[in-house]
Amino acid sequence: MIEIKGLRKTYRAKGRRDREVVAVDGVDLTVGEGDVYGVLGRSGAGKSTLLRCVNMLERPDAGTVSVGGVELTALNRRGLRQARHGIGMIHQHFALLSSRTVAGNVAFALEVTGVPRAERRTRVAELLDLVGLSERADAYPSQLSGGQKQRVGIARALAARPKVLLSDEATSALDPETTESILRLLLDLNRRLGLTILLITHEMTVVKRICQSAAVMRDGVFVESGAVTDLLHRPDSELARDLFPLDPFTELPGRTVVDVSVSGADADIPLLTEVARTLDVDVHVLSGSVETLAAGRAGRWRLAVPGDGAAVIHHLRSRGAVVAVAEASS
């Protein structure tokens, strides 16, 4: 649904000496139809620039951006305006018109595309019902909570029935409880409408709750990307370390410390009990957990096993687990 190849975007930074700042540096990204894809990174990593290049609010210096099989980077101004109807966007700070009611804010997105008044009214009612704000149609933004404002923003973004939804830190200005409600709404919209969602965030909770795939961005490049469950199985994965933090490595006399990751149905098999009984060994769980992610059940543990651990490692791998001997730097 979204295909980015070799994307590069630079800016001129003003100062004592003008210098070129590379915001996005040769990024490739594929987001499948109906996927929820999260791009994680700290402020200044290039996330917002990347997102703005997807709907061409920022035109890249190099590379291509395609959405739904249409190469946006090749379109003229008129063609781009038409293509943007298929791309909705929600913002961190809501970007609502204070002089318009909730219904008026949602209707605005339809007015600019020339939708007749009667059709607008029907569509606005549908959207407000979809996001749970039917009773607030006549309220103004100043009368709404942060979560309600974001629901208005989501309704407005969906007005033209887009197949792609872009989210620019949509929950970072919200408290944890409201964040959870917005994430549930986005996941529900993804499932009910078949929306493809590309979001940027610095919150690991967002990836944990709704993303099937993710990338970690730093200094304008992806340092890792892929399906969340695949990244969890990589010993060097930053995402895995943040989602399932393990206690620091400690050498234990007569034991080998191993890191174990599981996903899918394997996460619900009592592997550690099974290996202890089958091999008649003591398995010491140093840290770890099993959790339900949007991508499915997954778990990660740091274990201390007897001797060189060969028999335990072989058994765990035969049962579908990914096992690596822990290193002091991990």
From TrEMBL:
Keyword Endoplasmic reticulum attached: no
Transmembrane segments: none
SUPFAM superfamilies in the record: ACT-like, P-loop containing nucleoside triphosphate hydrolases
UniProt feature coiled coil, ranges: none
UniProt KW Cytoplasm keyword: no
Organism domain of life: Bacteria
Protein name as it appears in the record: D-methionine transport system ATP-binding protein
